[in-house]
Structure formats: structure tokens, C-alpha cells
Amino acid sequence: MKRLSVLLSLLILASLALAACGPAATQAPGGSTSGYECTDPLGCVKIGPSDPVHIAFWGVLSGADSTLGEDSKRGVEIAIDDKGGKLFGHDILLTSEDAGCTPEGGATAASKLATDTSIVGLVGSTCSDETAGGIAAITKAGLTTISPANTRPSLTSPDRGPDYDGYLRTAHSDAFQGKAVAEFAYNFLGVRKAATIHDGSVYAQALQQVFVDNFKELGGEIVAQEAVAKDATDMKPVLTTIAAKGPEFLYYPVFVAAGGFITAQVRDVPGMENVKLAGSDGIFSPDFLKSAGPNVVGVYLSSPDFSAFTGDYAGFLEKHKAKYGGSTLSTFHAHAYDAANILFAALEKVAVQEADGTIYVPRKALRDAVYATKDFAGITGNLSCSPTGDCGAPVIAVYQVQSDDPASWNPADAANPNPKKVWP
Amino acid sequence: MRTSISERALDAIVSGVLWGFRILIVLAIIIGTVLAIRAGTYTRAQWIDFVIFGVAQGSIYALIALGYTMVYGILRMINFAHGDIFMTGAFGAYFTATWLTKIGFTDRYPVLGLMIPILVAMIIATLIAMLVERIAYRPLRGAPRLVPLISAIGASFFLEYSFRGIFGPGKYAYPPINALEGEWVVLGIGILKVHVVVMVAAGIMMALLYTLVMYTKVGKAMRAVSENQDTAALMGIDVNKTIVSTFAIGAAMAGAAGVLFSLVYRQIDWFMGFTPGIKAFTAAVLGGIGNIPGAMVGGLVLGVFESVGPSLFLEGLGIIRPYQLKDVIAYTMLVMILLFRPSGILGERLTKQKA
Amino acid sequence: MMNNTNKENSLWAAIKIGLLGGAVALFISLVGMAEVFSKRDVVEKTMTLGQFVLLAISVASGLLAARRTAALLDKPNTASQAAAGLIAGFFSAAILTLFVIIGAKINIRTVFLNASPGLYSMLTLNQGVSGVWILPAAGAVSGLLGALSLSLPNAVRRPLFHAILFIFFMALFSGLFRVVMINQSGFWEKTAKYLFSQTGMTRPGAAIFFALVVAISAFWSAKGQAIKTNVANLPKGRQIGLRVIAFAVIAFIALGLPLVSGAFIAQVIVIVALFILMGLGLNITLGFAGLLDLGFVAFYAIGAYTVGLLTSYGQYGLQHISFWAAIPLAVLVAMAAGFTLGLPVLGVRGDYLAIATLGFGEIVRLLAGSDFLAKYFGGPQGIIGIQKPCIGVLGEFTKVDVPRVCYSLFDAAKPGIELSTPQSIYYIAVASAILIAFVSWRLRESRLGRAWMAIREDEDVAEALGVNLIQTKLLAYMLGAAMAGLGGAIFATLIGSIFATSMQLIVSINVASLIIVGGMGSIPGVIVGAIALIGLPELLREVSEFRYLLYGATLIIMMLAKPEGLWPSKTTQRELHHLDAGTSAE
Known about the structure:
The complex is a heterotrimer.
Chain A: H1 2-21, E1 32-33, E2 36-37, E3 44-47, E4 53-59, H2 66-82, E5 86-87, E6 90-98, H3 103-115, E7 119-124, H4 128-140, E8 145-147, E9 167-169, H5 174-189, E10 193-198, H6 202-218, E11 221-227, H7 236-243, E12 249-251, H8 256-266, E13 276-279, H9 286-292, E14 300-304, H10 313-324, H11 333-350, E15 352-353, E16 359-362, H12 363-371, E17 376-377, E18 382-383, E19 396-400, E20 420-423
Parallel strand pairs in A: 4-6, 4-7, 7-8, 8-9, 10-11, 10-12, 12-13, 13-14
Antiparallel strand pairs in A: 1-2, 3-16, 5-6, 14-19, 15-16, 17-18, 19-20
Helix pairs in contact in A: 2-11, 3-4, 5-6, 8-9, 11-12
Chain B: H1 5-39, H2 44-75, H3 82-102, H4 105-108, H5 110-137, H6 146-167, E1 172-173, E2 183-186, E3 189-192, H7 193-215, H8 217-227, H9 229-234, H10 239-265, E4 267-268, H11 274-287, H12 292-314, H13 326-340
Antiparallel strand pairs in B: 1-4, 2-3
Chain C: H1 4-30, H2 33-37, E1 41-43, E2 47-48, H3 49-72, H4 78-105, H5 117-123, H6 134-150, H7 154-183, H8 187-195, H9 203-233, H10 236-261, H11 263-288, H12 297-311, H13 323-342, H14 350-368, H15 374-377, E3 383-384, E4 390-391, E5 393-394, E6 406-407, E7 417-418, H16 422-445, H17 447-457, H18 459-464, H19 469-495, E8 497-498, H20 505-518, H21 523-539, H22 547-561, H23 570-580
Antiparallel strand pairs in C: 1-2, 3-8, 4-7, 5-6
């Protein structure tokens, strides 16, 4: 009875508060306030004279893959610094939401961002799974998000559906990456027999399949296509199975955990001593060196080609070093920087500022402006967005690890790069 | 007891399904094995390798399983945090071994370079296990069975995420011991030196433990307490102290297992205890819970099945990517054992008044 | 004069308590909580969350030490208690002080990741090592305050305590309140901006909340008892009337909430409702029948995959039926799965059952995500494009990857109502949870329910009394599975895609934990447990990094403090008190 009465009194208090609230009244289309009339079909964001311009980042910020998200977030932060922290004389406020690299995490993060009507635009997510779970909520809320790191091909395919209207990316599609690795292996290394391992993640499974298809097309032979559980530790049995098929080249586009275990154990398996090893952007990070140990030297890793970046990448790295000390954490910081700048450019194009400093951002117009991006001079290249949301300039390179010291990680260093670009 | 026709029919269906299930799985294993061997994909040396990998993995499972089985034998409690005790040991060893390698000690005295981290790991694991026992388990003795289980789950999360917070979410490469690189040839079979070390070390630890439990006073007390706490107390045994020492010994074994694991797989992280923990408990059940030799046998059997199974029966049955389903083998085997022989391979050593 | 030995004892006790507090403070700093929390404010420009937590430890140490002194001394007085508090507070900060001094000399960051310059400057209020004296000073003062609070009269201390607790709570949830209120625009927007800052509360906001809570708490402790007796003394008819009003209010809130709160809170409530569904299901197998199932997620997965396969417009969709037709099928399939998985483990008892079911849960997840069965379940790529529920008529399925159009029931040219947002799924989830709660309540009171409880207490006796073990156990599995299957079905529609990686063992563990934390066998307990263990961590996304750390600590503390659960059923409560009669447990 006591519990019940406490509960009831609380509920009554809450209900009084809610009853007073009345229905939600967001800026409806056509609803006019002082001078500016919002005619945008998705509504407008009103930013008061003293309010900040609110943008948000969503991606993986906790868990084993958190460096991926942290790296992209830093790109956005540097982009904001480059604007002097201000747009139209208002401060830029960046909030970030952890999506945990899972579809549920993406859905929850997206619904939280969708609830906050002060947000004008988003950068994210980092894992393709997060986008799969969260994009519907974002599009529905009239928001537009630009992902710096999603590489799943289907996210920008022509039949991606209306839920994806609010989705664009500056990252490359894995359709390019898998193809590049296949060409590298067949033409540059001259191998003819390849094997692959994936870890049951969407990313790895799709990417190795792209590689397999392209490698076969080039005339190569796939001798084994294996998979392990994401939490597997003992890789020797699966490597023995692969060894029995006699490959010259092993491609494992997995994440750091499985990548580390495979790399550390592969040389212990008879028959695998001289097989060439390659991974992809999922393990293109100092974390991989830390987890793999001495065997990592010589491993090939595919990644966006940093030397093909047309913009001032060196300048970006300077700023990064000054702000965070140390080198970059993963692959997609420059893509995140570009994503944020595309968003800012579109905002500058469509936002309307009144005399008292109030800004109105029509949501649909903003989205259209992002899609209309053409020859945008970013770090990663001259970017133009396609009608299906691809803004990236996909130039893939293959790097080779030179040292197992994580501190030496610096693929863009002129004199002593680690890993070092070997192709093309 | 009332028995209607429908009830008897139900009984018949149940036993029919059970038998069908058993026969199906046995058939699948036999057919798969025959087909795999006839396909001749693997050489004899490779089959032997599979077994050796399995034995190495199995000895680690066995060492962890000992802690589960001992604690279960005494308190009838699944110590869910035991896998994480294993992780704490590995972390303690990692920092010690990295330092020893850095100052060049490991290269000069490889044997000590192996022993010292193991010792450190055992001490750290023991201390943390005793702390966990004191805070999360001891006050709950006598509470309903599920209460300590949930507390143990809580302790498991707490340990995992504490280590994650303190040492970071990344993965660390365990420093290799140069003297242990490469392989030894025994009876014409090449075995990795690390594997030999792991098997020998695990064997020694288990022998020591067995002696301790069977032939010392502490061991006698443990066995007495696991038979009946009240009677043991009446016989002048300090029940509390005995329980603490059980936790401590189990944790020491897990700590040592942590180092052996790191030596073989060369990578550690904060979550590394979870899966081996569950596997080890499976091993303990396989061997017959509460039974110390059972835990050893269970661990080895599980390790070998996991290593050989995918290429032996799954590949033979034409299942693609068999290693993805490695854990399915482990769990199916568990269910099989529970169906065929509910008390485990060697039989459980529990008093009759169980669950 | 005081007894000499006791004086020494109490001094030592105070030091010990202080050192323990210091160890906790050090742990919080090393684990990274202190620094992350210092980026959040309790009161803007006055106190960060990190400072609040560290000071709270010192205050608590002081309070405990003072209380301990009072218990140790023959004639406790305020002065000795204050001294104990001061000492404990000092020592609670002493460990951190040492840590800062050592950290400034030696780089311990290679091992302890969070021993960063940021942490040191946070601990010394940006003064560097020269300002390290601030720590013990603040600790000692807080300890003293904690001790002195003990000598305040109850009527003053409790409202103060409540107010501080409330402020802490509001600070944690300030972001949530702020966004919801700002979305209402007008008066509420202005209020929100007055009360809350971007990172916490504003000074006037904190002052207002403080005053409000002190007033309410003081009023309640003065008049609460009288009000309660008045209500109890009301005539029966008026009491029922009050209940009806309360019910109406709850219903009104439940219906209106998603309209006001926006997508996020609705989403969190849906997730809580899904866990309530699973919890109620497991409550039947575990709470009623006493069968511990650690693979419960298997049924959730089966429900989700059934709906996915039946309704998806993606390449793995089989039938393209509507959500409403798929739901009962999903429940049936889950029940059938409960039957088939239940059969083999019928004879398995106790913890063996737990581990066997755990194995089943893992097998289901591994198979669903495997390449081997990928042509049916999508493997790692999962099942995407799950059709949203439509109130109206669904258009024909035309082509893979094209969702079917939802037309109005009355006019085929107009669009119908598509339940695509979390706010609309909310109604389905909450309605299902209420329905299932009602069903399990009726089940518990039924003949079957009593049979389950008989099995839980003693299988052999139950059998001797004529309970058919096989039938009763199988029914427990099947009904439990059906409820979890319903949860999974709703989950699939909420997210719109399913991946095997969502079906981890941790889901089963969460469900088992929430039942026991709520109170085993208790239906309101399941609801309270789900809110506490699933809802609160979801809402507190800002501290998501430490979510599971706090979750683990909560589980341990809950089991130590309230082993019978937050809202135990009457029988469990009685049993536990019976058990505890001999021991000194609280």
C-alpha cells in the first residue's frame, strides 16, 4: 500500500505536468513567426539569436571498435575548428551519440537525435549496421546525415528505398575496395591461388565476397573461403584447413580482434609460412599492430589512398597533431572532415538569417543542397554527390606494414611511413 | 500416480523424440567422419596437428574448469566471474612479461621469464578472487540458489568493465618468448614449443592440485566440506577458511591458465575471459561436475572436439565454412552428454541432495 | 574522559573507513569515470558531476566514520564524531593526493590509461601539483560536513538528503528533460532554458529544485502519516474511487506520453516493454516453474526471424504477409520451438539445465548467422526490409527491396496509417506487455500455475501428488517461449532488420537478472526490474561507457541488500524472512 501511494502521487504530479504541456508544437510547414515564413515540406529549424548551430555526430564510441568512431569524430571537430567554431556568427555545438556498432544501437541513437529538434544536420554513422538500424528514424525526422565511414555497397544502391533519402556518404563503397585488392593480388603480387577468411560480420562477409568475385573474374582461383566466429581465439585449426588447399595469398578483411589472432598465429601453421597476407580498412589502425605482434610486419592492408588526397591532408594532420597529440586512430578522419564541410557548405547555401541574428534552416532544402554538392574541394578529392548518395572519390591503395610498433603508425609520413604505400 | 492414455502417449512421444534425436546426431557424426576421411583432404600430419591444437586448447579449458568444479562442488554455485579471474591473471602477466622482455630479462633467463609472469598471474588472480568472494559471495551464503548466481554475473560484468576502463578497450599483443619460437620434433611429429610448454605446465599444475586435494589436510577439509558443511563444521573444520582456500586455489589455476592462453594465442583484452569461461564450465559439466579428474578429461575432450570437429564431421557433411560452427559442436556435445549421461563422462561427485 | 582503548579503536576505524573511501575514489578515477563525469555539470559553473561524485565519497566516509565512532564510544559526543569525520574525510582524499603526486613524477600512463594530465588537473582544480593540497582539504571538509550532518535533527537532515539526491538525479537526466521541454516551445522552452544548461542545471534551476524538494520532503515527513491514515480511513467506495482516478491518470499518461516525449523516450519504453515481455515469459519457466533457462534469447530470435521471413520485402522474404498475420504465427512457431527445445532437456535438473539451455541459445544464434544457412536466414547480412505494420490495406508485393504501400481502409487511393515510428510501435509494445501481464497473472492463479509452483518447490513431491511433470514442464517452456517470441516479433518490426548478432547470450542474462532483481515469480517485479536494469541505462546514454560497470555493481549491491528483489511476490518474501529468521541478515 505504501509503495502504491508513493507511485500514485508521483504519477499524479507527472500527469499534471504533462497535461499542462499540451500537444507538441514544432515548426509546422506554413507556420509563420516574425517575418520569416517556413514553406519547407519537412519544416524548418529555428535558431534563436543566442542559440548555437547544433550539429551531431553518431557512431561507435564505446566497445572494441570505438577507435573507428573516435577517429571520425575528431575529423568533425577539426572541421569545426577550421570554421573558427562559428557559423553565421553563432557558435557551432557538436553533440555525439554512441551507436555501439550494432543495428539496435543505431536505432536508439538515431531516435534520440531525431527527438532533438534543435539539430540541423548529422555526420555519421561509422558502422554500416548502425545506419541500417537508424536511418529510417533520421530520414523521417527530416534530418540529413553524411557518413564518413560506412562502406557497405547496398547503402547507396539505386534500390535502397525511401528510408535512405536522408543518407549520403563520403566513404568509398566496398565494391571498389574488394575489386582493388583483387587487382593488387592478381596483377601486382602475381598470385593465382587465394583464400579468404571472414568473421561473420556484415562488413567482412560482403567484402571478401567482392574480392572473391573479382579475383575469379581476373582468372585467379579461390581455393578456400572460410569463416570464424567473431570471438574465436584459436585460429590454427582453420588455418590448417586453409593450408591443406595450398593458397599463395590469404585475404582476411576482418576487425582488429580476429585480425590480430590470425596474424599472430598464421606462421605457426605448417604450410602457411610463406603465404602473403592482406587485410582491409577494418584493421588499418595502430590497434591492429598492437594486437598482432611481430608477425604483422609485411602484411598488406588496403585503405583509401592518402597520397591521392587532393586537398591539404598534411595541413589536416598538423592540426590533428596539435589538437590531440599523436597520430590518427583509423582511416576515416579525412572523410569525416569533408562530410562536416559539405554539411556546412549546404547550410551556408540554404539558411536564412534575420536582422536580429535568428537563423532558419529549411530541412528539405538543406537535404537537396547536400545532394547537389558538385566539385566540392575536400581533402579526399573533388567531391560530387550522386542522386543515390555517393559523395566519395574512391581511390584505394594497398599499404604494407613496416614495423610492429604502434607508435610508429603514420601512413602519411613522407620519410618513414608505416604502413608504406606499395600499390598502385 | 494417475496415468491416462493421453499421458502415456505423451511419454511415448517424448522418449521417441529423444531417441530419434540421439540416433540422428550419432549418425551425422559417423557419416560425416567417414566421408571426411574418404575425401582425403588432409594429410596424416595435419590430422595430428588438429589433435595437438585441440589438446593445447583443452588443457587451458581444463585448468579453468578446475576452479568451476571445485567451487561448484562445495557451494553448488556457478561462479560466473571465474572466466574473468582468468582474464585478470592474463593482464597481470602481460604487464610483468612486457617489462621483463623490455629489460632483456626474458631473453637471458627464458625459464624464469616464463615462471615469473605465471607466478604474478596466480597471485593477482587469487587476490582478486578472494576479494570477489569476500564482497559478492560470502554474505549470500544460505540465500536461495539464484541469488549468488546473479551476484556472480554482476561480479563478472564489474571485473570486465573495470579492466576495460582502467587498461583501455584495445587489445594487447602478449610478448613472445624467443626461446619458445619454432617447434620440437617428438617421435617424428613436429610440435610447437609453446604447445609443449602449455601441455606440460597444465599437466604439472593439475597433478599438483590432485595431490593437494587428495593427500593434504586442506584437501581433506575441502572434500569434507563438499560432502556436508554442517558435519564438517562439527568435526572441527573451519568451513569458512576452507571455502576461501577453494576459491583461492581455483583462481590460481585460472591465473596460470591466463598466461598459457596468452602464450599460445598472443593477444589479450578485457573480454577474453567470457567465452573461455563458458567453455570451461561446459567442460566441467562434460566431465562430471564436482569431479576434479572429470574437469581435466572434460576440458581435453572439448578442446579436441572443437579443433578436429569442423574438418572431421562438418566438412564431411558438406557444410560450408565449418569453423563458424565450431561452438555449435561444443554445445551440441554438451547437450548430448546431458542426454546420454546426465552425470558427465566420469560421473559427478556430488552428494545426493543436489538441485 | 573516554576509555583509552576505545579511543584508539575509533581512530583506527575512522582511518580504515577513510582509506576504503579513498580506494573507491581512486578506482573511480582510474577507471576513467572521474574525468568523463567532470565534463558534465551538476550545477553549471559551480560543480561538475565528477567533483560531486568524489565529494560524495568523502561525505559518506565522514558520515560512516562518525556513526562508527558513536557505536564504539561509551559516551559519544559531537566533537569526537566531528573529529572522526574529519579524519575519515582526510584519508579518503589522501590516496588520491598521493596518486597525483606520484603521477606527476612517474609516467604511469603506459599501464593506467586514464592517469592522464586531464585527470590530474581535474583533481587539483587546474592547479597542477602545487595545488594538490586542495584534495585533502576538500576531503576533510566534506568528511566533517558528513559527520556533522549526523547531529542534525532528522527533520532537517532527511529533506536535505533528499534534495541533494534529487539534484543529482535531475543533473543526470537534465539533457532528456531539456530536449523534451524545448520541443514543446513557448513557455516550456523558456522554462527549460532557465532551469537547465546544455550540460546540467543552471544555478537558479538548482536552487529552485533544491527548495522545492526540501519543502515537499519536510511537508511529507510532517504530514505524510496523517494523509495516509486519512486515506486508509476513507469509506470503501471513496477508496475505490481514488483507485479509479489513479488508473485513469495512468492510462492518460500512457496514451499521451509518446505524443509529448518524442521518438527517443518512446524507443526506450518499447525496448523496456520488449524486455518485460521476455521477462514475463522467463518468469513462467523460472519464476513459476523454477526451470532456469539461460538460452531464452533463442525464442526471441525465433519470433523475430519468423516475422522477418514472413513479412520482409527484401530478398529473404518468403511470404509477404502483413505484420498482423505474422504475429500469431511467430508466437506459434516460438511455442513449437519451446516444445522441441524443451523435450530433450526434460530430465535435466538444476544448473545442468541452465548450461544446456545456454547451449541451445548459442546454437540458435550461431546457426542463424552462419554462412551454412545463409540462403535461408541471410547469414551475417541478416534479414532487412521488414514491412512496417499498416492499419489499412497493404498494396501488392511488386518487387524485391520495394516496400509495400499502405492504403487507407476506407479509400484505396489514400495512404493508410503506417506504424513506422517508435512512437507508434510504442502502442503495440505496451498493449502487448499489458495483455501478457494479465495472462501471466491469470496463469499464476490457475491450476496449472499451482502445478508449476509445486514443481519449483520439489519435483518429486509434486509428481507424487499427481502433477504430470512432462506435461507441466513442457507447458511452462511453451508459454514462456510464446511470450519471448512475441517480444522478438515486435523487435523485428521496431528495428526493421534482424541480425544474428543482436541475439547474444547477454540478452538472456539480462532477462534472468531483471527477473531476480525485480523479485522472482512476481509480475510487477518483472516490470520494475526491466525499468531499473534496461530502461535507466538506456536513458543514461551519456554515461554509456560505464553502463555495464554500474550494471554489474548494481547487481551485486541489489543481491546483498535486497535478495528477495525490488518488488517480491508475497510467497518469496515470506520464505526469505523465514530463512533469515536465524541469521543476522538485514
